[in-house]
Structures
1.
Amino acid sequence: MALNAPATARSLIFAADGYTLSGPSTLTLTNAGSGGAGANAIAVTYANTMAIISCPLTSGQTVTKLDEGALRLEGNTAITGNLNIGGGSVILAGNSVTNVSGNTRVGISYTPSGTQLPTFNGTLTIQDNAVLNTQYIYMGENINSEFPGMVAIVNQTGGTVTTSGVDGEGNGIRIGHWPSETSTYNLSGGTLTIGNNAELALAIDGTGIFNLSGTGVLNTRTFVVNARTGNASGSGTWNVTGGTANIGAGGIINESTGTAYAVNLGGGIIRATAGFSSTLPMTLTGINGDITFDTNGFNVSLTGNLSGAGGLTKTGAGILTLSGTESYTGTTTVNGGILNATGATNFPRDVVVGPGGSLSPATGAFRQLNVGRDYTQNGTLLIELGGPTQGVLYDWLNVTNLATLGGTMDINITTPFPVTAGMYFDILVAAAGITNDLSGVGFNVHGADLGYSLWAFIVPMGGSAEALRLVVAPEPTTMALLGLGALCLWRRQRPPARR
């Protein structure tokens, strides 16, 4: 049906499949009149049927989608009020633009006036280049918990969704709002932006799930995995298997106590748009690859335990600090910036430091950092040296298997301390040996002046074990000649007998 002149309707009821309202003129929904499906209501009666509206659609009040069929909006829609999806699905497609000045509610049991809806499960799909602008998004409006098992779903495969409001609890989107329901937001393409520094909040009182995959992009200041203390009826889960989550200063947090939540990280990217910290335990799943933390020039701190079969890749300028008890069994890769391992952090499996990346056993505290299998370095190892006691007054790396060394050893002498010729510092020990000599390794020494030079050797430690050892040896004439200010001189030498 082509709409060639402006029209007004109280409600629309599509009782069969295949109806399309098209044309250049605007259809306006209104409160006027009586009967039908109710004021400002659109009903697509039967499951597995679809109605399409491609003409402009407006309403000065809340619009409610009813019944089990699908409504596809392909034109421009302007709603002054809320958009309620209380049954079936609404599909935003093509180049459509939908502006909702109030809230978009997916899965709702009552209208704002208190009228119970005949259907309540709801699905919203955003695809192609469609645009949705709304104040808030609320999912799982199982008001008074009268419909156990309510399901609310958002599938975003493309387009742009933007929220602009901040509700009374600081949320821009609530996924799993009321008890006894399950809400799921699937972001596999397009962009979801939580504006105005509002939060993306899971599990306010129900069960909330956010799945990030494919090429989806999330922009939010704060990701809250469980937003209600005492939520006994649900939990919050964030699954990442692809896509990019841009996280701001609010970080990844849990606002509840003693409630259930899970953060499962696979082959996607978490990128900082400001410095943030998180205390949450996280599972590195390895699904579709290892999670990448891009600090993007900021400092990010993860104090919760990291577990699972996957690995972790650090990219971007800035510092990622890990201080939990890590038990994940994938590879740790540093391709940019600094990975700072403090507290109880050790790496159960392989560690690879690529060009442009730096690994630090600690900052401001000397310690032993354990690598559970192989260590491969083409970037920088940051070692702090403050005295002669290994792991107490200077950092060292303890490698369970093989070490392959390249790149740079950066030695920061944090404070002057008494040294004598022959004193040594084993800054790296590999139980199965070091696979190469020091010809491809650079040394950068800075900080306090010890008045002696340091020579670098690879030395046998018994069996197959070998150490990278720094040995104190005075050579003032040579140092003065090289302009080193009596700081340090390096020699690359391997003792003749290793095994």
2.
Amino acid sequence: MMLNRYGSPGELFYIDEDGQLICRNNHVFEMNGAERLLREYRNSVGCRYYRSGKPRPTSFALSFSGGISAPASEPTYQTINSKAAGRLLAAGGVYNGNVEGFRKTAEQLGGDAVKGYEQVLNEQTAGTAIAAASILLAKRPIELGEVQDITKFVGKVRGDSVLLQDVEITQINYFKRTVEETAILRKEFNSTVRKSFLKELSNTPEAMNKFSPEMLERMSIGRNPDGWQVHHKLPLDDSGTNAFDNLILMRNDPYHQALTNYQFSITRNMVVGETKIVPWVKPQGTIYPK
């Protein structure tokens, strides 16, 4: 792989004998760009069929212009061992209920991987996070005691793990409302309730300390700040109402998306009139994150 037509094949990225894409210098990119490229490469390879079972290794003999280039030096294998990699491993440990196993992987990577891991999980937070993940991902039966005092939730957005803190996790008896009843409540919310909620919220110290003057001006006329959504803590599809204490303004990406993805996953197969006891995630306060 070359970044321009004058570079040599494999100068920055190359495919090794095992079909893995290797980056020679992770620091060339900002915002973890190299890691994202490597991840997308693995995802792409996983969706393709190769006659030999893997992509062909990079050929170092010919340059792009057709001339013979000098033999490349022995490839320097780069290990992804940044803090970002450690944070991803921590999320994987929570998601799979195997914090110790994923921590060992971070230790084996070396570098700053362990530091990144500990930014997300340490001895004080690991137990609670695993319990939350286990309950919410239905990896084992739910008991009432397990949902008490849990304040963290691990959701999914576009395949990536998202950690939400300062949430309440409770068991609710989810009752599937009729489409007609839900539509009436939704119409009321869209026409008047959301506007009134945002107008009232715009005058609170919490909102004034959180949002820019431009965002506050939008809220004062009943409009969402850019990138934010008003969320029902208990959904209208269940027993939720349009009361202000059931509403919260949430940053859409990734937090609101993570919650709605989870809610859809546990209720999508329910039919009208059906009831089901489910673990429910409720963000606290009126603005999330604070």
3.
Amino acid sequence: MSTFQLSEDCITDLAELVLQMALCEWGDCKIMLNCWLNIHKHILEHCSTAAAKDGKHHCCLPKCKQSLHSSTSVLQLHCKLSHISRIPLPCPAKGCHEAFTCATALKSHFVATHADLLGKWITLPSNDISPIAAPFLPHTRPSPPPLPDHAILPLWKITPLVIPAPPYQPRKEQPRGLARRWHRLSAEDEDDDDEDEARIAFEDLLQVPLNPDHIVNTVIRSKPPNLDHQLSRPQTGVAPALQSDDVLRSMLFEALSKRIEARLEI
């Protein structure tokens, strides 16, 4: 409906779509619709979803003198004739503020007042017709920008950032006997891990030549050293370090010690 010839037959259809505020007064529903056609469909939807009470369908619109009906279709017909027909249809001519409850009166007004618009080809949105609620698609869409002439797109060449090592932190000293046992266990685990690892040889990566003309200028700034890995740094060791083997043992230390000694004897 974006382009059409204006005639007497389409005056009513245009009037039903002219933008206007239409409040639904069905029960507690206070939804604001934007045109005559949408309020029409909205009220009929209320009729379809209204629950029947004692086999009767109740009209919830205000000032209704015949609110009980035998079926949904009878209730919808009642709303069309008694309520929706009273909603005025605005004149679709732009700048005209006349409204009519009868479609015949609307056509007579349009023929008498806006006869110069009849037979005219209208393209929406138009300067002759009021804005309507029906969506429309633009006739032309902007073309995308042309592709670049060169075959190779510009490349980004960024030097990897060298992250300094965190400052040295003294480690917690362990008793010599226990440290020697843990060292032997960790050495055995490393040997097992080396045997299980699969050695796969990969080919060298391709060296892609870079054209200096296509490299985009890039500004690289080093991060201050005080902000380097502050959150992921491990906790500091115990200070001062333990000076004796008289350390408080946990509840399961004896069981763990016997298990480790059994593994070392094997």
